[in-house]
Write a structure and sequence with these properties.
101 residues; mainly alpha
Length: 101
């Protein structure tokens, strides 16, 4: 993954614009969601004061789905001021397995 040294959360209005653009670009709900998430990451991630990704295609080419999900979680945490408050040893998959069993 590219070096990202700054996350700049977006305004609600800009998030809405990105979602609307993704809605117009893709009919399939999953495709639309991934495209919108990639657009958000491209708009929020910076390295050395410059955008870390040229656009959503660069995000999709550089990141796995899990990496993109983690990056969006970091953006959300940075916006809410909760950065670093999660348990780094928490294993979501193990938790779900224990909960189901």
């Amino acid at each position: 993954m590219r070096e990202i040294d700054e996350l700049r959360p977006l305004t609600a209005g800009r998030l809405l614009e990105l979602w609307q653009e993704a809605r117009e670009a893709a009919e399939d709900p999953l495709e639309r969601t991934i495209l919108c998430n990639a657009r958000i990451a491209a708009a929020c991630c910076f390295s050395g004061g410059e955008p870390a990704f040229e656009d959503e295609r660069a995000v999709l080419a550089a990141l796995t789905g899990r990496q993109l999900e983690g990056l969006l979680r970091r953006i959300s945490e940075a916006e809410s001021g909760r950065e670093g408050t999660g348990n780094p040893s928490f294993d979501q998959e193990r938790f779900e397995a224990l909960r189901e069993g």
